[in-house]
Amino acid sequence: MTRHRPAGAPAAVAVIISTVIAVGLIASPALGAPPEGKGGGNGKGKNKPTPTVIETTTPPPTETTAPPTETTAPPTETTAPPTETTAPPTETTAPPTETTAPPTETTPPPTDPAALPAIMAGVGDSITVAYDADGSGSYPQYSWSTGGSSSVQSHATRLRAAGASDLVAYNDAVVGAQAADLAPQVNQAIAQGADYLTVQIGANDACTSTVDGMTRTDEFSASVAGALGTFADQRPDAEILLTTVPNLKRMWALSKDNGWARFIWSIGSVCQSMLQNPTSTTTASEERRDAVQARVDEYNAELEAICDAIATCTFDDYTVADYQFTSSHISTFDYFHPSVSGQATLAAITWPYSAYAG
């Protein structure tokens, strides 16, 4: 608070003046009251009375001393509250739970990058071609085996990430191919100099117009064994990955209650040995579906035996056959082939069985 001059000062001056001036003169008016805001009293200049005329030589004693009550500012505000001087410690350290990213599908480079293939080929049917994966037709960029799309992370993509940066990948698969069609594809891969061969075959051998039209198991086995035996003879240092046929009955079960899927299956004559009358619960329909799946299981058992007989062949240990895929893994264009998500899943679950997975 601003200090004020004592209120008795004007009266003292008046005494000195009155001593000098002759007695009897007419009294002069007293000094006016201090301007508002500079008087005594309550310190705000509003309550001090204004004197009119000095009648005596002695000023009133009551105004000689200013009230002391305002001379010292209240001490309560001199120190800021200490409670805010230190920030709360609870936020000084970031939570540690986010310091490590979750593990991903990245593949560390093998210890010997020179052992990686320079050329690979994918053979088989429409699954490897990525048929109907993202529309009608073939989309080889989404192939689980040789595709280059980052959304799939194919075997080719993983090999390049592991160090085979100059890898050349050929997709020799053919839409609609059966086991009997495998030999020409394998011969093409041999001519291309493939060091790594992926094989996915068998769905079309079971998916025919009728149960009686399915490829016999012994014929299926002979076709696959002959083709892969030729590849192993011609490319003795090349690696083979042989994958199993997906569960066709599961594919039926996932979409049988979808009206649009049933319509597509009907007008497209899709895998009628399994998908004909998809909502029928008759004994004949159930037995038909079971017969188709039983044939697929026989094919897969033969694939295991074929691969065991070839030193450079790796079997997927029924990973594809046993995988519990969902509707998101199936194309919405035919409700039969893998979608882009399905292709990515095929790549992910089969890669650990590749000779180059490390």
Explain briefly what this protein structure is:
The protein has 358 residues and is α/β, with parallel strands linked by helices. Helices cover 33% and strands 6% of the residues.
Features:
358 residues; alpha/beta; Rossmann fold; 2 domains; 12 helices; 6% strand; disordered N terminus; SGNH_hydro; SGNH hydrolase-type esterase domain-containing protein
List the helices and strands and how they pair.
Elements: H1 9-20, E1 119-124, H2 126-129, H3 155-161, E2 168-171, H4 182-191, E3 196-200, H5 203-206, H6 217-234, E4 239-243, H7 248-255, H8 259-267, H9 272-275, H10 283-308, E5 313-315, H11 319-322, H12 340-350
Parallel strand pairs: 1-2, 1-3, 3-4, 4-5
Helix pairs in contact: 4-6, 6-10
Task: Give structural notes.
- It comes from Agromyces rhizosphaerae.
- This is SGNH hydrolase-type esterase domain-containing protein.
- Residues 31-115 are annotated as: Disordered.
- Residues 48-104 have a biased composition (Low complexity).
- Pfam families: Lipase_GDSL_2.
- The model is unreliable at 1-107 (pLDDT under 50).
- The longest helix is centred in the last third of the chain and has 26 residues, at 283-308.
- The protein has helices spanning 9-20, 126-129, 155-161, 182-191, 203-206, 217-234, 248-255, 259-267, 272-275, 283-308, 319-322, 340-350; strands spanning 119-124, 168-171, 196-200, 239-243, 313-315.
- It is of the alpha/beta class and 358 residues long.
- The chain has two domains: 1-73, no CATH class; 113-353, Rossmann fold.
- It has a five-stranded parallel beta sheet.
- The two termini are 83 Å apart.
- The protein contains twelve helices and five strands.
